[in-house]
Specification:
- This protein has one domain.
- The protein is an alpha+beta fold.
- The chain starts with 24 loop residues before the first strand and ends in a 12-residue tail after the last helix.
- It contains 2 helices and 4 strands, in the order E-E-E-E-H-H.
- The longest helix has 17 residues.
- The radius of gyration is 23 Å and the shape is elongated.
- Bound molecules: zinc ion (2 copies).
- One zinc ion binds next to loops.
Length: 117
């Protein structure tokens, strides 16, 4: 079994990746059964686990038909939206470098008084 996010080999039955911490089990939206991360359909009830909603040009959410079939008609449902953010490692590194630089330039002689306390 591999981590779907970083391809790190993880032990069977593991719930989180040991390298990047990505969750490895997927909760079925219909019956709440935990499924292995590489399953595309729930092994308990057959509901599709891969559901991606698209944002339309009008700013509305478009849900896939497979998901719409699971939703009760004319009922209020709660939808949890996970936005995939770009994980730009270079940007991350630049950001931590910037904060470190700001920290050290902000350290003036006047702050040195705290060292003697
Ligand atoms: Zn991982
Ligand atoms: Zn299910």
């Amino acid at each position: 079994m591999e981590c779907p996010q970083c391809q790190f080999p993880v032990k069977a039955g593991a719930k989180y990746c040991g390298r990047c911490g990505a969750p490895l089990d997927r909760l079925c939206p219909r019956c709440q059964t935990l499924n292995p991360a590489n399953y595309h359909f729930c092994h308990e009830c057959g509901a599709p686990l891969d559901q991606e909603a698209k944002g339309t040009a009008e700013g509305k959410l478009e849900l896939p038909d497979a998901l719409m079939k699971l939703l009760p008609a004319n009922e209020v449902v709660r939808v949890i939206i996970l936005v995939s953010e770009p994980t730009d490692m270079e940007e991350q590194a630049a950001w931590s470098r910037l904060t470190a630089e700001q920290f050290f330039t902000g350290y003036s002689e006047a702050d040195a008084v705290y060292d003697s306390i």
